[in-house]
Amino acid sequence: MKLSIVTTLYQSALFIDEFYQRSTAVAKQLAGEDYEFILVNDGSSDDSLNLAVQLAEQDSHVIVLDLSRNLGHHKAMMTGLSHAIGDLIFLIDSDLEEEPETLLSFKHQMDAEVCDVVYGVQSSRKGGWFERLSGSLFYSIFDLLTSIEHPRNLVTMRLMTRRYVEALFQFKEHEMVISCLWVITGFNQQRQVINKGSRLGSSYSLLHKISHAVNAITSFSAAPLKFIFYIGCAIFSISLFYAIYIIYQRLFNQHSMDGWTSLIISIWLLSGLMILFIGIIRVYLSKIFMETKHRPTSIIRKIYGR
Questions:
Q1: Half-sphere exposure for 158 (CA within 13 Å, toward CB)
Q2: Out of 28, 74, 76, 255, which residue is the most buried by the measure of CB atoms under 10 Å away?
Q3: Which residue ranges make up each domain of the chain?
Q4: Rounded-to-integer distance, Cα 56 and Cα 279, Å
Q5: Does the pLDDT at position 204 exceed 60?
Q6: Which helix (H) or strand (E) segment is 118 a member of?
Q7: Which residues are CB-contacts of 71 (< 8 A; sequence separation ≥ 6)?
Q8: pLDDT of residue 134
Q9: What is the average per-residue pLDDT within 40-51?
């Protein structure tokens, strides 16, 4: 098969029909009748599944994967990619913030630059000042703590070759951060700047974004653990020099240091650091715990179509 178009559905009922119509037109223009749609229902509570099943009944190109529950965007995307059989796989969100017609320009760039991946980045980050500021801060911290050259303002939409997708599935991580896996898989990847739209509301809350940032950093960097070691060395060195200073004052100047203020500050400082460090270690231990269980990353309740 020449082309697979993969997307996920979560509260997507308002967009499915238009997405299907526009994507079908682009797929036929690029691949004739040699294409497939893979729609992954990620536990959506609206009418997304029923609408997708109707499309599968009307169009033999459409396959619907109904997951047993909501597993998250990243795992749903990987599930869809695992069922794609096309020589080219086009991954895109179904909410129409990314235009399906961009597939044509992606394919043109892939042919011109002979690469395995063409991915989209936003011309400017969408959202208000807080979202732009927090996004910039996340990328700065991530670049500082990891050796991954993660593209800024990356979007879901990307066109990939079969060999790249097969290489992507060599990673067996349960707690996955798919954008980082895209990067470390390697191959020749080229970016294309796109204009991403914006719709009202978002399924990603602030708490969800913070959780994603913590997961991304701890999955691809041991820097926080090294940070604990360096801070420990610094505190030990400062304490040692301060102890020598107090002993010197007591022996040679006969001056007893007032320790109440320094004692309280030290207790609060060290207690806070201990709680922080235990929390960091806990994150790494929990990730090891989850990975060693080898649980499936997704469970499909039913497949409609092929």
A1: 24
A2: 76
A3: 3-128+152-201+298-304, 223-292
A4: 47
A5: no
A6: strand 117-122
A7: 42, 43, 79, 297, 298
A8: 63
A9: 89
